[in-house]
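Students often ask why inverse folding is considered easier than folding. One informal answer: many sequences map to the same fold, so there is more than one right answer. In these notes we will look at a single instance of the problem. The structure comes first.
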């Protein structure tokens, strides 16, 4: 099974390896065999967070922009077959892990990174075309990875019907780490939506909130059977590889197709 409309198939073709991993019940494509060659290139999507010194964004605004930007790049026409980004995005999605690396930028450095191929959302986050981590351009390499933490805010209740990415209420994550995780979640959510026959545009701008412990426990208890968890609650998880901050296999966040679902 694959996205029902020809245009959707084209726009999401680079995500087919991801679909085979996150919703195998919804696709007839086998998950690709991944050669985790320790000497091979490590591919990642750079995610540039605009955190100005004088007027920093709220973490909610930044994370929502990060989720939207990662997905926007993957569904951009340039990431479709024949597009200039297709090979890079497809190679990254087929690498076994959808690694992202968040970096902080401000003022002139933020302006400079706009010239690097990618997609900017809300003038807060720019997702760049993925590639080997040791081949990033100078404009990206000079940006700091740390210093992304922002003070908590109090976001409003999510409107019913809006897709949500729920952060794990029991795991501490830096803002930069969370930005990478919600970017994973938006891609996974759109992939499952598309491969189960709905319009991925419906989840293009998800809200980001921290889950209640009760809801989190309910969803996590259902994840042993991902197909049933999707059918009952409309949820799909992000399980971290454990390279930074959290233990391998930790569910860092859960995408849900609609608030109140």
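Output (designed amino acids):
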């Amino acid at each position: 099974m694959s996205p029902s409309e020809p245009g959707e198939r084209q726009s999401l073709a680079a995500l087919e390896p991801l679909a085979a991993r996150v919703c195998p019940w919804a696709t007839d494509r086998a998950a690709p065999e991944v050669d985790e060659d320790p000497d091979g290139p490590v591919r990642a999507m750079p995610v540039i967070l605009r955190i100005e010194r004088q007027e920093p964004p709220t973490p909610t605004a930044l994370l929502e922009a990060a989720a939207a930007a990662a997905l926007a790049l993957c569904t951009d026409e340039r990431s479709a077959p024949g597009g200039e980004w297709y090979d890079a995005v497809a190679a990254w999605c087929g690498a076994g892990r959808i690694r992202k690396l968040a970096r902080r930028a401000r003022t002139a450095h933020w302006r400079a990174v706009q010239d690097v191929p990618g997609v900017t959302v809300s003038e807060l986050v720019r997702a760049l075309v993925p590639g080997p981590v040791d081949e990033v351009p100078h404009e990206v390499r000079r940006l700091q990875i740390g210093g992304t933490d922002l003070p908590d805010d109090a976001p409003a209740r999510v409107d019913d019907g809006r897709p949500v990415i729920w952060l794990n209420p029991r795991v501490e994550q830096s803002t930069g780490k969370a930005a990478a995780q919600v970017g994973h979640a938006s891609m996974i959510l759109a992939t499952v939506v598309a491969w189960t026959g709905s319009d991925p545009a419906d989840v293009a701008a998800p809200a980001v909130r921290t889950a209640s412990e009760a809801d989190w426990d309910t969803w996590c208890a259902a994840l042993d059977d991902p197909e049933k968890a999707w059918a009952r609650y409309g949820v799909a998880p992000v399980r971290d590889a454990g390279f930074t901050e959290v233990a391998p296999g930790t569910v860092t966040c859960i995408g849900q197709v609609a608030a109140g679902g």
